[in-house]
Amino acid sequence: MSRSSVKSGEMARLTQFVDNEVFRAFATYAAIVLVKMMLMAVTTSYFRLTRKAFDNLEDTVSFGTGESAKKLVRGHPDVDRVRRCHLNDLENIVPFFGIGLLYALSGPELSSALLHFRIFTVCRIIHTFAYLIPLPQPSRGLSWAIGYVVTFSMLYNLMKSVLYL
């Protein structure tokens, strides 16, 4: 078998994913929540700079040296809030990514998959606004809980349809 026919066979298998509507839907919504999570790092940096609150002395170089720089190595409630929001993203988006990928590859109905992916994505966006504004509870708690239930629903459907238990 020639090298080019092996490569074209590999490409044919890869294009099956691109042709799979459920996988494309997962890729779309996974990309949205991953970008949202990445933007939380930028938001943390923004709050650190505007509040002049840093974790490391070397990060204060642009704002002074010596004792004045040491005063900038401190916590700030706004920075802590953004960091907690980012940590919550890591705790929820990473499992969604893994479970959602397996779920998407298990062959669910497109309508069911879209419902799962869309609800999770909307919940994570609402959770971020509820955390950063902050909105009164139970907005943040409900958005977290609904997103978490969606991830477990995908896991349940995956186990029900694919795994041998």
Write the layout of secondary structure elements.
Elements: H1 3-19, H2 21-51, H3 66-70, H4 77-105, H5 110-132, H6 139-161
Question: What structural class do helix, strand and pairing data support?
Answer: mainly alpha
Number of strands: 0
Tell me about the biggest sheet? Answer: none
Molecular shape:
elongated
For the record, give the distance between the C-alpha atoms at the N and C termini, rounded to a whole number.
Answer: 40 Å
Q: Roughly what is the average pLDDT, rounded to an integer?
A: 89
Give the C-alpha Rg: 21 Å
What is the helical fraction, as a range of percent? over 70%
Task: Extract low-pLDDT stretches.
Answer: none
Order of helices and strands: HHHHHH
What does this structure look like?
This protein is mainly alpha-helical. The protein has 6 helices and no strands. Helix 2 packs antiparallel against helix 4, helix 4 runs antiparallel to helix 5 and helix 5 packs antiparallel against helix 6. The radius of gyration is 21 Å and the shape is elongated. The model has no long low-confidence stretch (mean pLDDT 89).
